[in-house]
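FAQ

Q: What does a record look like?
A: Structure on top, sequence underneath. For example:
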């Protein structure tokens, strides 16, 4: 069994509350004309915004702005911002916000050099070839978009939500400032943390051959699970915030993939269709689906994998048999998601009250065929998981 794999992350990481003083110098490395992208206009009232403006002035940078990135970013927003880049002759993009803002900015950087609809990249009608440099300041821990080359965008006309990977999407630099996440609501904090945990979990269950990778993932997952209750109880716990931020950043940058290569993120793919069709918060959808997905995939063959997770990460008794340990592990996740975090536990509570989209959602989630993941899931299997979650 081969342990061969390739790993490279070009992103420069500035971690800690004092690192923003290096922002202007980092931006200036890439040019003088900067596009600042963000979601809500509330950013203008934050000290972070004043710091960005001050850094731009200090280093002689011209700052253009483009806000309004949606929680599930739209391809039309990418097109709008790419046009600003072309019109203003932007040299570097600065993305400030959660994973949605960062994902949107990645495709803005790719679309700025393309004279067409960015959805052409997702539909296979065009290839991403040129990229503006991207610098990020994440304000929410969870997606790992600050140190990976993935992104996901929604098309509100076709109700599709599709991911893309390209090495050119890696940010050139990211500023990870734990104090910026303190003002994030408990709801968004929980959703982001569950997203990060799920990134590790799905790779872990695909069994990378190297023991080192499994043990690193166990450490990251335990860190996330230990820190979630702390920040829910005390939002200003900076030590817990810092650990959540750093653990989240490593989830998708390729390090933990090891010999699994591009492991299928089955539960993520299933949830992406909920976000596309119902505009649901991604982390909430994952919290609802994940326990049902794990139950659906539990059998005599997968039970030992669940047992290792339950014992090494979720605190189950090492003396339990595999099936009982697996069930206790799933129950522990339910307790964290729905009791500690207070998230809604059923799709019906989130506006999913009928099955009219399920067949199409399952087709897209399965990429038109079968998902070869932890177990093989057909489109009917995916529909069953949606039904279990209602």
């Amino acid at each position: 069994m081969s342990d061969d794999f390739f790993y490279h992350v070009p992103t420069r990481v500035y971690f800690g509350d004092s690192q923003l003083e290096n922002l202007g110098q980092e931006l200036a490395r890439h040019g003088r004309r900067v596009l600042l992208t963000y979601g809500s206009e509330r950013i203008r009232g934050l000290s972070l915004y004043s710091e960005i403006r001050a850094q731009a002035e200090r280093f002689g940078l011209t700052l253009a702005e483009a806000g309004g990135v949606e929680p599930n970013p739209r391809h039309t927003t990418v097109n709008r911002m790419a046009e600003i880049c072309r019109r203003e002759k932007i040299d570097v993009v600065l993305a400030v916000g959660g994973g949605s803002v960062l994902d949107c900015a990645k495709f803005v950087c790719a679309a700025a050099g393309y004279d067409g609809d960015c959805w052409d990249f997702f539909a296979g009608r065009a290839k991403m070839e040129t990229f503006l440099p991207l610098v990020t300041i994440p304000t929410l821990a969870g997606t790992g978009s600050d140190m990976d080359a993935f992104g996901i965008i929604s098309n509100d006309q076709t109700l599709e939500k599709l991911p893309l990977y390209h090495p050119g999407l890696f940010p050139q630099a990211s500023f990870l400032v734990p104090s910026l996440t303190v003002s994030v609501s408990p709801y968004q904090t929980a959703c982001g943390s569950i997203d990060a945990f799920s990134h590790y979990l799905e790779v872990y269950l695909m069994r990378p051959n190297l023991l080192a990778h499994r043990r690193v993932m166990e450490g990251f997952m335990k860190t996330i699970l230990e820190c979630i209750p702390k920040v829910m109880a005390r939002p200003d716990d900076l030590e817990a915030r810092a650990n959540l931020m750093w653990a989240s950043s490593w989830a998708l940058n390729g390090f933990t993939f090891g010999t699994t290569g591009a492991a299928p993120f089955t539960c993520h793919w299933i949830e992406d269709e909920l976000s596309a069709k119902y505009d649901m918060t991604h982390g909430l959808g994952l919290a609802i689906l994940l326990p049902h997905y794990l139950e659906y995939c539990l059998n005599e063959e997968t039970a030992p994998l669940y047992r290792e997770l339950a014992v090494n990460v979720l605190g189950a008794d090492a003396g339990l048999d595999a099936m009982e340990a697996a069930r206790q592990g799933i129950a522990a996740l339910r307790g964290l998601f729905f009791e500690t975090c207070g998230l809604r536990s059923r799709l019906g509570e989130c506006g999913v009250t009928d099955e009219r989209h399920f067949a199409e959602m399952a087709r897209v989630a399965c990429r038109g065929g079968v998902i070869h993941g932890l177990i093989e899931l057909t489109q009917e299997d995916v529909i069953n998981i949606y039904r279990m979650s209602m």
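Q: Is there anything notable about this one?
A: The longest helix spans residues 211-233.
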